[in-house]
Structures are given as structure tokens and as C-alpha cells.
Amino acid sequence: MTVIEEYGVVDPGAGPYGITTGPDGALWFTLVHAGQIGRMVPGEEPTTYQLDPAGQPTIITTGPDGALWFTESRAHHIGRITTGGVITRFPVPSRDGGPYGIAAGPDGALWFTEMNADRIGRITPGGESTEFPLPVTGAYPSAITAGTDGGMWFTMNQANAIGRIDMDGTITTCPLPTEAAAPVGITTGPDGAIWFVEIAAGQIGRITPDGTITEFPLPDRAARPHAITSDGDGRLWFTEWAGNRVGSITTDGIIDIHDLPTPRSEPHGITLGPDGALWTALENGALARIAIPGR
């Protein structure tokens, strides 16, 4: 049986959004409305670190240097915070670029998306940035992940496509079969394929390195899936922002859905926690722990 517990970590207005597990065995999360970064070791009290109050920190990930890296979509910065809480911020090259997704690449750098500028960015641990323009305008690139093929894969929310960028900046795009699907979250699956969510179509998608796409409709097509991650045990887990649920999908497409305890909690980011459970950030001010059966 899947057990879900919620832990209030901040005021409801602070808005927990992105979440990841750091190298220090803690959960790190963004507070999108408060302009803060949060840290919590499961079972202990959380700590918060103040950024630009209006900066809108969104996605957070562990960098190759052992620090946490995050995007500030409204402040147009890439941020870095050490496990001791020391913060450094770097402006993105494109003015008003709107950075959103960020992930570590195989080249020792961080790669990020710029929603407003239709660009993919690359930043070294030392803060040196490079940008690569997309071949289309109005694409609204969103989440990004490292693939098993040496490239970075990203969602193109308004272009209705999945993109891939090589380490030399070469970009290819793959249109989705479903029109206006609006992909957002993306991750690498245990099968070597890339998995993503289609927030407007209510589907989970899978794309192989050669560009073959399969789509799996959710039981509730209006659930608005938002983020997705692997559980390290052969399944992918995702959040349903409008459905107030979390779900899992096997690599052969079997879907299981679970209601969250609190109505209208607005689940966003999701990650495998340091304790072997899944954790999701709830915009109502809490983190939810999803215990995986069998662990």
C-alpha cells in the first residue's frame, strides 16, 4: 500500500515548487512566491535562505561541483547555493530570458532553458554562460534533462515538441503526435528513454534516442501532469497539478494513481528522496512523502 504523508514546511503563500535531493542527504526546494530556497533533512526542521523576493526561483538540481543550482525566472538569474547556504547568482546573457529548467550535463556544466528567449543556455561551475538559439520562435522551452546518449533533452511547451541539444550546440526537434499537448516536465527513464508529461493533453510521453514517441493517456485527461522523475526501481513518478494526485507509470505503460491527503494542494516538483521515498513540493506550503511499497 502506498502511504502519503504531508509535512508543512513554510507559510502557504511561500509556494514550494521545485525539489531535489542534495549531496548532503537533504531535500532542497524552491519557494517560488517567497523568493527563497528551502532545505530539509527528513525528520528535522526546515531552513530557508532568502533570494530576491520577486525573483521566482523555480527548478533546482545538484551540480557537478557538489552545490545546488537553480533558476530564477523573473530575476533572470542562475543561482548556486552550497550545502552550507552560501549563495552566488549569475545573470543569464539574454535580457529577460526567463530561465526555467536546469540540469547537470555530461560535460561538467549546467544546462538551462530560457522560456522568454527561445534559447538553451550552458553555465560552467565558475559562472561562464553560453547560449544556443532554438530553430523556432515562441517555443517556450521548459524542463531539461541529461539523456543516456550524451545529449540534453528538453520540452518545448508551446512548439509542442521535444528538443535535443548536443554538447556542441547542435539542436534537433521532434514534434509530438498529439496537437497542443504542451509538454513540461522531463526526465531520463530506467529504460534509457526520455519520459515527459503533457500538461494540456493529460498524457505521459516517452521518446527513444532515435526519436520514436509513444504517448500514454492518463485516467483523468484534465489532471494537468506537471513534473516527472524516476524512482530508481523501474518506475517513473509524476505529479498531477489539477488532479491533486501523484502517479506512477512502468516502462511498459501501466499507470497507478494516488490522491493527496489535502485538497487543492497543487503538487509541482517531485524527486527521489534521501530516505528512499518520493517527495513532492506542494504549493500550499508542504512537502509530501510518498512511501514506495516494498521499500
From TrEMBL:
Annotated signal peptide? none
**Which cofactor names does the annotation list?**
Mg(2+)
Task: Give one Pfam family, short name only.
Answer: Vgb_lyase
Q: What EC number(s) are associated with this protein in UniProt?
A: 4.2.99.-
Positions of Mg(2+) binding: E266, E283
Binding residues for substrate: H226
The active site annotation covers H268 (proton acceptor)
Q: Which UniProt keywords apply?
A: Antibiotic resistance, Endonuclease, Hydrolase, Lyase, Magnesium, Metal-binding, Nuclease, Transferase
Q: Which HAMAP family match?
A: VirginiamycinB_lyase
Q: Function of this protein?
A: Inactivates the type B streptogramin antibiotics by linearizing the lactone ring at the ester linkage, generating a free phenylglycine carboxylate and converting the threonyl moiety into 2-amino-butenoic acid.
Assembly description: Monomer.
Q: PANTHER family from the xrefs?
A: VIRGINIAMYCIN B LYASE (PTHR40274:SF3)
Put simply, this protein is called: Virginiamycin B lyase
Q: Which gene encodes it?
A: vgb
